[in-house]
Design goal:
With 574 residues, the chain is α/β, with parallel strands linked by helices. It has four domains: 88 residues, Alpha-Beta Plaits; 126 residues, Fumarate Reductase Iron-sulfur Protein, Chain B, domain 2, CATH 1.10.1060; 154 residues, FAD/NAD(P)-binding domain (3-Layer(bba) Sandwich); 155 residues, FAD/NAD(P)-binding domain, CATH 3.50.50.60. The protein is 29% helix and 18% strand. Helix 13 links the parallel strand 9 and strand 10.
Length: 574
């Protein structure tokens, strides 16, 4: 526990007269007011981050044994995210970006905590929490696409008792989680176990069953009470330069999908990857591993992989840890270079990539500075394979029916489209993070449930957010952020399919959970109880998360000590 210091951040209230002329007692009284922590605001999946972390860190005050606290934290997390072991590996954790702990010694490693809980659930064979027995609702729901959005929606509907059929055109479930993220980042057995845990709720999973091919969209509209469309964006965009069409040139999504299907294309010794996002980084690193898998290439020079990006590293949208990992593995990155043409020999084989030199101009609609060609300046890169990972889009033409001519499917915040009883989410609405897709699937399921039951859509509690200025940050002891164990670069390339990131230990988990400030929610620090001279605060006999004390305002003299000394900003004088 930190030293008992007066707050440097909370100003004492003015004393106003109450009663007679000899007054001088404040009219304000302490109120226990929960605030919305920035981690909650920053999580697109809607995870109650603070609550599941505090369930473990406050387990002794809550009279919970460690295993029971971890089990309960898993249950709380999976109310909104049925794929914690997956998201703990692939999510770029936007929840950490605004963590108030950053102002002290680094954001809480929320993603590492999530991964530990996900793995904990798999090791203990924990089941997902349900809200109603299977079959308690009679309306059948169709979900098209078993990626993160589709899996999330199917889960949320199945746990409410709906019979759900999940249609997936590819041989296995997972969408871009399986066919776009390499196995060294996301082991296939981890993904499969979390998928099967959703299926175990009674979801019927039809693999290799493409809507528009094995079953028509119109028949789904006739046979199901609602449809959730989550086909993703699996079609890679072309770079539209001369020489692109032909052997030796792939889109990023095509390349990664072939690798995942076990039909990896044969790459040459010099590979050019175009793009600055996660797909480009993954394609570059997978190219190195294909070379390591090939005895013939290993006996030669191995693959020389260079990534070309038209902006600078500052503007790269790829996850920073993945960029660092690529550089550690000797992927070269050439900035401010955009493809101009691909040259081929008389046999049609790729021989060279010619690139236009760029400079940065004014910011565009994305907020990043626009790349501007430098007239007359080109560079040449001798290569035999080109992977263009510049962007991707959905392919609704294969779905047919009323969606046949759709390019991107528009949906509101609840996933509702212009088509009656058709909802949507995930990358076919707008390219985004997997965690965004999980949140969109959940909200669409809630909207489907409300629509079918004739209920109003759920409203989120309207809480004030809490900034670091409102916290008593010097109360909290300094603690270093937990670092995940990782394989070094030589080991990674010697074992191309080995998982690089090994997460954190249980001891690290417990230390990291204790770093949470519990912004805006009581965590039982006892300072209000200790500093209150009139003894207004009484410990709860049966404490619950965020409820450790009762307040008796009858004896309060409005001195403001309790609010001034509350480190997490839960108490306010009103």
């Amino acid at each position: 526990m930190g030293l008992l210091k007066k707050s440097e951040h909370v100003k004492p209230l003015k004393v106003t007269s109450r009663g007679g002329a000899g007054g001088g007692v404040s009219s304000a009284r302490p109120a226990q007011l929960e605030k919305e922590a920035p981690c909650l605001i920053g999580c697109p999946a809607g995870n109650g981050v603070r609550e599941w972390i505090n369930t473990v860190s406050q387990r002794e005050r809550l009279h919970l044994p460690l295993e029971a606290a971890l089990d309960e934290a898993f249950r709380m997390l999976t109310q909104t995210n049925p794929l914690p072991a997956v998201m703990g590996r692939v999510c770029p954790h936007p929840c950490e970006d605004n963590c108030n702990r950053k102002t002290k010694d680094g954001a809480v490693a929320i993603n590492s905590l999530e991964r530990f809980l996900g793995d904990w659930g798999l090791e203990r064979h924990l089941t997902l929490p349900v809200l109603a027995p299977p079959g308690s609702q009679t309306e059948k729901i169709a979900v098209i696409g078993a990626g993160p959005a589709g899996l999330s929606c199917a889960y949320q509907l199945a746990r409410r008792g709906y019979p759900v059929t999940l249609f997936e055109s590819l041989p296995e479930a997972g969408g871009m989680l399986r066919y776009g993220i390499p196995d060294y980042r996301l082991p296939r057995d981890v993904l499969e176990k979390e998928v099967q845990r959703i299926v175990a709720l009674g979801v019927e999973l039809k693999l290799g069953c493409a809507v528009g091919r094995e079953v028509s969209f119109e028949s789904l509209q006739q046979d199901y009470a609602a449809i959730f469309v989550a086909i993703g964006a699996h079609r890679g965009k072309k770079i539209r330069v001369p020489g692109e069409d032909g052997a030796g040139v792939y889109t990023g999504t095509e390349f990664l999908r072939q690798v995942a299907l076990g039909t990896a294309p044969r790459i040459g010794q010099r590979v050019a990857v175009i793009g600055g996002g996660d797909t480009a980084i993954d394609a570059a690193r997978v190219s190195l591993r294909l070379a390591a898998d090939s005895a013939e290439l290993s006996q030669k020079l191995g693959a020389d992989v260079t990534l070309f990006y038209r902006r600078t590293r500052t503007e790269m949208p790829a996850i920073e840890e993945e960029v660092v990992g690529a550089l550690e593995e000797n992927v070269k990155i050439e900035f401010l270079a955009a493809p101009a043409r691909i040259e081929r020999d008389e046999r049609g084989q790729v021989t060279k990539l010619v690139l236009q030199r760029m400079r940065l101009g004014e910011p565009d609609s994305s907020g990043r500075r626009s790349p501007v060609p430098i007239e007359g300046e080109f560079i040449e890169f001798a290569c035999d394979t080109v992977i263009a990972a510049v962007s991707q889009e959905p392919d609704f033409g294969t779905v047919g029916g009323p969606l046949a001519e759709t390019r991107w499917l528009s949906a509101d915040a609840w996933g509702r489209t212009s088509l009656e009883r058709v909802f949507s989410g995930g990358d076919n609405v707008e390219l985004g993070l997997a965690t965004i897709a999980v949140g969109q699937g959940r909200k669409a399921a809630e909207a489907i449930h409300a629509t079918l039951r004739g209920e109003a859509l759920p409203e989120a509690a309207k809480l004030k957010d809490i900034k670091p200025e409102r916290l008593k940050i010097d109360y909290y002891d300094p603690k270093p952020r937990a670092e995940r164990a990782k394989l070094d670069a030589p080991t990674r390339l010697a074992q191309p399919h080995a998982e690089i990131d090994h997460g954190i230990t249980q001891e690290q988990f417990l230390d990291e959970a204790s770093r949470c400030f519990s912004c805006g929610l009581c965590f039982g620090c006892e300072r209000c109880w200790m500093f209150c001279t009139p003894s207004c605060f009484k410990k709860e006999a049966d404490p619950r998360l965020g409820h450790f004390y009762k307040v008796n305002l009858d004896t309060c003299d409005g001195c403001n000590k309790c609010a001034a000394e509350c480190p997490c900003g839960f108490l306010e004088m009103v």
